[in-house]
């Protein structure tokens, strides 16, 4: 799978608050250089942006400075993620269609699924080990208590042991 080349003068801005629009995004990034374009793709169902946008600068250096300064910064109470953007998508009306077929990331999807299953298996093993350790601990405590009860019973049955215990307790 070929790696998509990044667009060095366009930054992806993720983590946008609902109230942030293109004008606010423009105002937040203009201190870093002249801006050619700002886009916040809309969700067709809600007609609201999907909490991310793109800012295209005239100069690549300005995009790099904006990324360095704004990644991790806060805007309207939300922490932003700012990276170089991947190439623009092929246009299909306003919603835009992905430049890659839907199965292109199937391998990484399967890898993520396998990693997730492995983590769940490890967690289940750890939980089982903890339960086994707790059960063993409970058994040992029960055995110790049982041993103490047997000692008490032996003392009641053995007059010599009772007498020894009394002498030891007095001394």
Automatic annotation (TrEMBL):
Segments for region (Disordered): 121-171
Ranges where the RRM domain occurs: 9-87
Keywords: RNA-binding
Compositional bias of kind Basic and acidic residues: 132-165
Domain of life: Eukaryota
Entry-linked PANTHER family: ATPASE E1, RRM DOMAIN-CONTAINING PROTEIN
Protein name according to UniProt: RRM domain-containing protein
Source taxonomy: Eukaryota, Viridiplantae, Streptophyta, Embryophyta, Tracheophyta
């Amino acid at each position: 799978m070929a790696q998509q080349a990044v667009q060095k003068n366009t930054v992806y801005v993720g983590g946008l608050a609902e109230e942030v629009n293109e004008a606010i995004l423009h105002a937040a990034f203009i201190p870093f250089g002249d801006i050619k374009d700002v886009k916040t793709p809309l969700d067709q169902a809600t007609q609201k942006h999907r909490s991310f946008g793109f800012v295209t600068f005239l100069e690549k250096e300005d995009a790099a400075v904006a990324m360095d300064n704004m990644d991790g910064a806060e805007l309207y109470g939300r922490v932003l993620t700012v990276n170089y953007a991947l190439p623009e998508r092929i246009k299909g009306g306003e919603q835009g269609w992905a430049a890659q077929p839907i199965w292109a990331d199937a391998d990484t999807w399967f890898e993520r699924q396998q990693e997730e299953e492995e983590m769940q298996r490890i967690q289940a093993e750890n939980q089982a080990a903890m339960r086994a350790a707790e059960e063993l601990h409970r058994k040992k405590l029960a055995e110790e208590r049982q041993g103490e009860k047997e000692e008490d019973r032996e003392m009641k049955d053995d007059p010599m042991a009772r007498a020894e215990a009394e002498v030891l307790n007095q001394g």
